[in-house]
Amino acid sequence: MAKISELLPRSAIVLNLQSKEKLEVINELVRPLLATGAITDESEFVSAIFRRENMESTGIGLGLAIPHARTKAVASIVLAFGRSDSGVDFSSLDGKPSHLIFLIAAPEEQKTEYIMTLARLSKLLRKDEVRIGLNKAGSPDDIVRVIMQHES
Amino acid sequence: MERILLYVEDTPGMPAAVAWSLKLAKGMSCRVIALAVIDPAAPRRREAPASDVEERAWGLLYEIEDDAFQQNVRISLLLEPGEPLPRLISLSSSYDAELIVASADCRLTISELVRQSSRPVVFVK
What is the distance between the alpha carbons of residues B65 and B12, in angstroms, rounded to a whole number? Predict the structure, then answer.
């Protein structure tokens, strides 16, 4: 099972998200993933993410959101990360905006790996020191370093 | 009814409670709030450190979320630290849940939950 740091290409790390609205943020995070080849059908993948967003609140509190989808439009599990200074409304139960946003794309048939990746990422992000590190990081390398330091 | 609070634990009876909650939520077009509570003071087996317990709890929550999505049921996930019974009672009130659902084999003291909750509680076997 790949580590979170191994699933997050540096090219898919956006330190200063420009978008303020949830669906625009998702598009902003999907864009760099297209170049990795992990997403084979952009419109299908974005539709799958939007369908999830309409059914679920992927904001998990503490300023975090993990939009995600498991679909045939994905060839291999991959993550993107975005940081928003102003925050984005991901309908979190605590009512607060999300500043650290991880997007997860997974192939339809990899349900177990998908669930485990979500679980491991959620656990990781609840650590105060990880969120502080991600907020302070000045480069994509720093982001990956923070994750590597704290994932088991 | 708008919100069902599903109390999530890793017990053999949990899948039945999940299935019942999702079916009810779908029928009534309401949202499920799936809640797992991790008690930092609970004694742990040597092979299951706290971080593994948390990861397992998130895994259960995301499994339920995936099932809900397949069935077109709206869902929110919540993982909270604390003593399970008081947290469940308190959160059912904060999130204005109209019904609490738990598995009949949950580790809560059922009589205490029924006594303390101001919401109806359904235990699913």
Answer: 18
In a mutagenesis test of the A interface, which of B5, B33, B77, B90 is the best target, namely the one with the most A β-carbons within 10 Å? B77
The distance in angstroms from the start CA to the end CA of chain B is 22
Question: With bands split at pLDDT 50, 70 and 90, how would you rate the model's confidence at A38?
Answer: very high
| DSSP three-state, residue A61 | strand
Q: In this complex, do A56 and B78 lie within 8 Å of one another by their Cβ atoms? A: no
DSSP annotation of A55: H
- Tell me the residue range of the domain where B74 lies: 3-124
Contacts of B55 in chain A (CB under 8 A): 119-120, 123
**CB contact (8 A) between residue A119 and residue B59:** yes
Cβ-based neighbours of B28, under 8 Å, separated by 6 or more: B1
pLDDT in tens, B66-80: 999 999 999 999 999
A123 vs B77: CB contact, 8 Å cut-off?
no
Domains in chain A, ordered, with CATH?
Answer: 4-150 (3.40.930.10)
Q: What is the CATH number of the domain that holds B117?
A: 3.40.50.620
Record: contact A93-B69, CB cut-off 8 A? no
Distance between CA atoms of residues A125 and B52, nearest Å: 14
Chain B residues with CB-CB distance to A123 below 8 A: 51, 54-55, 58
Query: pLDDT per residue over A105-121, tens digit each?
Result: 999 999 999 999 999 99
Residues 6+ positions from B100 with CB-CB distance below 8 Å: B4, B5, B7, B88, B92, B113, B117, B119, B120, B121, B122
